Amino acid sequence: MALSTEESGRLAALLSGQAERVTTRWTEIVTSSLRGRLSQAELRRQVQDLHSAILITSEQGDIDLSADNAAELRAALSELSRGRARQGFSATETTVSIFALKDVLAELVQEAGGDTALPDYVAFSKLVDEMGLFTFESFVRTRESLIADQAEQLLELSTPVVKLWEGVVAVPLVGTLDSARAQVVMERLLQTLVDTGSPYAIIDITGVPAVDTQVAQHILKTVVAARLMGADCIISGIRPQIAQTIVALGIEFGDIATKASLADALRHVLRLNGVETPRRQQPRRGV
Q1: Cα–Cα distances in Å, from 70 out to 3, 19, 64, 107?
Q2: How confident is the model over 194-232, as pLDDT tens digits?
Q3: Cβ–Cβ < 8 Å for 251, 205
Q4: Residues linked to residue 170 through DSSP beta bridges, in sequence order
Q5: Alpha-carbon distance 174 to 161, whole Å?
Q6: Three-state helix/strand/coil letters over the chain
Q7: Which among 260, 269, 264 has a CA at the least distance from the CA of 279?
């Protein structure tokens, strides 16, 4: 929806002739919808930025939000969307801040009167609707980007690589191991092997609830990648239930060492390096 040059001129006259009243009234309306979640000073600054962008665009002739002359207006709307998304506001709260301009324009157009009052308000309202839609879409894109970044950060946090001993690192896995997470595990493990020069890596699956063919394939790929880096891998955390599942599925780990617990895996690696380890205490039987 584009405003003609004449409509844009009348909009510019309304916005510039009563700039203070427009920004003040606009801020008041938005304040009630946000219920104090944003400071008055910050909200007024946002409204003034939008008011300025609309005014500059309307003074350049006809307004088409997709045209080059509306670049500053689009930038102001995008900046509002990004800021609100990062501050935790909803898409509705953000878009309502744009639609509030309709109430202000209705008051101004009604006071101005004249034969063009009704057509002008209809045209101005359609422009505000388009601005609101642009803001909503920009908000959604920003929120999706934030969610993707947070998901990536959670993946990294859920796949720590820890140094257990000199030359021994471990990856304690907790939760489901899907393709995306398996890729992160492999990348972090390989990078740690490079950084530490460790010849041994323990992949502990004690916290993995179930092992199916796909999970096993992910683990095997990680082991192969580590071997290409010159490191031997030991898989620990093979509980009885998981062992039965692996046998039932016909999954073979080949010559990969497997241990029941992380402690057993570490003890195994230490023995390979000639480090004396205490014997496991056998459970005492009752007399």
Answers
A1: 12, 20, 7, 25
A2: 999 999 999 998 888 878 888 888 888 889 999 998 999
A3: no
A4: 162, 202
A5: 12
A6: CEECHHHHHHHHHHHHHCHHHHHHHHHHHHHHHHCCCCCHHHHHHHHHHHHHHHHHHHCCCCEECCCHHHHHHHHHHHHHHHHHHHCCCCHHHHHHHHHHHHHHHHHHHHHHCCCCHHHHHHHHHHHHHHHHHHHHHHHHHHHHHHHHHHHHHHHHHCCCCEEEECCEEEEEEECCCCHHHHHHHHHHHHHHHHHHCCCEEEEEEEECCCCCHHHHHHHHHHHHHHHHCCCEEEEECCCHHHHHHHHHHCCCCCCCEEECCHHHHHHHHHHHCCCCCCCCCCCCCCC
A7: 264
pTM of structure:
0.60
Residue 213 one-letter amino acid: T
Question: Residue 118's Cα: distance from chain center in Å?
Answer: 44
Number of Cβ within 10 Å of residue 139's Cβ equals: 25
Query: Tokens in use for 100?
Result: 């509030």
End-to-end CA distance of the chain: 91
Provide the Cα torsion 12, 13, 18, 20; round to 10°. 20
Checking DSSP bridges between strand 232-236 and strand 2-3, what pairing results, if any? Answer: unpaired
Q: Characterize the bridge pairing of strands 232-236 and 200-207.
A: parallel
* Centroid of chain to Cα 57: 33
In the numeric block, which tokens belong to residue 260? Answer: 């029941």
What's the CA dihedral at 23, 25, 27, 30 to 10 degrees? Answer: -140
Output the CA–CA distances (angstroms, integers) from residue 4 to 58, 72, 175, 202, in the order listed: 10, 18, 59, 69
pLDDT digits (tens, 9 = 90+) for 87-126: 888 898 899 899 999 999 998 888 877 778 888 889 899 9
Q: How far apart are CA 165 and CA 202, in angstroms?
A: 11
Strand-pair category, 162-165 with 2-3: unpaired
